[in-house]
Q: What sequence folds into this?
């Protein structure tokens, strides 16, 4: 039996109440002894959390159109069990405009928030200020060092999500969804983000299935691609299966038909290992229509 609302719905509703500035509604989400770690400060208890949020609302007004403070980029479950949400915040104070990018980790117990940890980084938004230096992403082709990639075996009712690559490497071939890790991004958050971008699905990120490398050489023997790949077992908990912008197609495949997709032997072995892990990794069924 469920002990409370779905944790993902609870987190989404928390952000909705936060954007509306409804303190009474926000109170309901926390248990009496909840804790909030924010801006390197730890607050204990529901009343203390209310005070902190109330002071923040009194100081800063919403900065996005429609009276919104935070736009949520993604919501996913990380291996620790916490619900991880990434967001962009825009607020104003008189003539001052502040924008921050950050994330919140929520530990949900008994249908209420037990602990909440927030990390945010401020960046300039004044058009008169010089733009921050752009850090060029490490090249995938002929890289100076290995590139870290994350992928997933998304299992739903015994079937597996496959995608057809639109770009190199493996352009035109079927494989597991995945992509490269971004700077400052945790592995689990990277998996959740890539799955949403490539498949349209929100996933619960489970355990690591396998870690391996993929090295492709050109005709001269130079390293054209070198990825260190970390594949996770995941299950869908929301969204609809749809091919992302860098994906040619996305399907839910019966594992007994994998040979028809002409996948690499390594991808097939990762899927087989992941399927064997499902009963222990996920004790309850996921919820999605796909």
A:
């Amino acid at each position: 039996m469920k002990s409370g609302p779905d944790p993902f719905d609870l987190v989404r509703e928390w952000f909705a109440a936060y954007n509306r500035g409804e303190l009474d509604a926000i109170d309901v989400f926390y248990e009496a002894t909840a804790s909030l770690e924010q801006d390197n400060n730890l607050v204990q208890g529901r009343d203390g959390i209310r005070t902190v949020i109330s002071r923040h609302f009194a100081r800063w007004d919403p900065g996005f159109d429609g009276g919104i403070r935070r736009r949520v980029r993604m919501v996913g479950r990380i291996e620790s069990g916490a619900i991880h949400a990434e967001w962009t915040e825009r607020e104003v104070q008189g003539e001052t405009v502040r924008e921050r990018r950050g994330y919140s980790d929520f530990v949900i117990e008994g249908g209420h928030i037990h602990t909440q940890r927030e990390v945010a980084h401020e960046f300039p938004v004044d058009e008169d200020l010089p733009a921050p230096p752009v850090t060029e992403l490490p090249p995938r082709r002929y890289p100076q060092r290995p590139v870290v990639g994350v992928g997933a075996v998304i299992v739903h009712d015994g079937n597996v999500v496959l995608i057809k690559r639109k770009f190199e490497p493996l352009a035109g071939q079927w494989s597991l969804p995945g992509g490269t890790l971004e700077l400052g991004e945790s592995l689990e958050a990277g998996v959740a983000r890539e799955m949403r971008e490539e498949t349209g699905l929100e996933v619960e990120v489970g355990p690591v299935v396998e870690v391996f490398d993929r090295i492709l050489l050109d005709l001269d023997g130079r390293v054209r691609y070198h990825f260190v790949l970390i594949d996770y077992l995941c299950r869908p908990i929301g969204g609809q299966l749809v091919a992302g912008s860098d994906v040619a197609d996305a399907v839910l495949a019966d594992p007994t038909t994998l040979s028809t997709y002409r996948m690499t032997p390594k991808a097939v072995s990762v899927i087989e290992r992941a399927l064997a892990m499902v009963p222990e990794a996920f004790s309850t069924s996921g919820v999605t229509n796909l």
The chain has five helices and 14 strands. Residues 100 and 274 are 37 Å apart (CA to CA). The domain at 147-281 is CATH 3.90.79.10 (Nucleoside Triphosphate Pyrophosphohydrolase).
